[in-house]
Specification:
single chain, mainly beta, Jelly Rolls, 10-stranded antiparallel beta sheet
């Protein structure tokens, strides 16, 4: 029997990791699985996998972000977060992200980030 909830379920364990691609940004070693998209099709909640040594450049969060480290560890502006750690980034906050060991992170990002060059 199928419930009405079935159409809202994402079976992330069955989804394929897709290389993260952003125009003008080096995303080498980063992979994504979209979970929920906004009306325009942009992922609002997603999983990102960082391979060891991968990093994401310094950027601004106009609408903030939430993240939960699921596996491994990640550094965000010098703070080390390990599996189970949660971070709320308030609107307008800026940071870079890197992972020496690799990690998997669940993100909620309500608005596109702005890369700061």
């Amino acid at each position: 029997m199928s419930s009405t909830m079935e159409k809202f379920i994402v079976r992330s364990n069955n989804a394929t990791w897709i290389p993260l691609q952003e125009s003008g940004v080096d995303t080498t070693g980063m992979f994504v699985k979209a979970l929920k998209r906004d009306e325009a099709g942009r992922p609002e909640s997603f999983l990102i996998k960082f391979e060891p040594g991968a990093s994401y450049p310094y950027h601004n969060h106009p609408a903030g972000e939430e993240l939960l480290v699921l596996e491994g560890s990640v550094q965000i502006n010098g703070a080390l977060l390990n599996a189970g750690d949660y971070l709320y980034t308030p609107p307008g906050a800026k940071h870079g992200v890197s992972s020496e060991q690799g990690c998997v992170i669940f993100f909620i990002v309500p608005e596109e980030v702005e890369i700061i060059k």
